Amino acid sequence: MASRHGTTVFIRPADILRIGCPVIPDHKKPVRWSYNNQTLKEASGLQHRMLAGGRVLEVNTFQVNFSGLYRCQTLTNSSRQMLSAWIYVRTEEFAWRFGDWTSCSASCGNGGTWLRRIRCVSLEGQEVQPIMCQHIPRPVAASVPCNRQDCPPRSHLVTMGVF
Q: DSSP letters along 47-92, please?
């Protein structure tokens, strides 16, 4: 949703991108949309369609470039003031992915767990530094019990002194 104060979202190519202008559902005035300070007709290469009477803009994210500033403008129904809201869309070039499992934390005794490693990767699947994913919510790594069998009894050696 576009905001009067502006906001930023990260979108992966091929995700659905629908941007709503914050107006009431029965808003009757025309809504004008712009992309990078150009009208949608002037924005060459941007593939889009209007939904919900122009209150929602759907953008094709399969195209090469859809990142940028989207703005909606309209007159409010009641006070005839100009409403302007915007959203900055950035291409998400990185993502969190589940990786290998850790080795079991215990060799026996009901206390061992495996954890799934979480990696930050590029869209091509190459591992990158975790800082590249800091703007993306990190998934929670679930733990799985392992090596749950009892440990073998320990033998205690007692040394006897010679008298």
A: -EEEEGGGTEEEE-SSSS---EEEEEEEE-TTT-PEEEEEEEEEE-
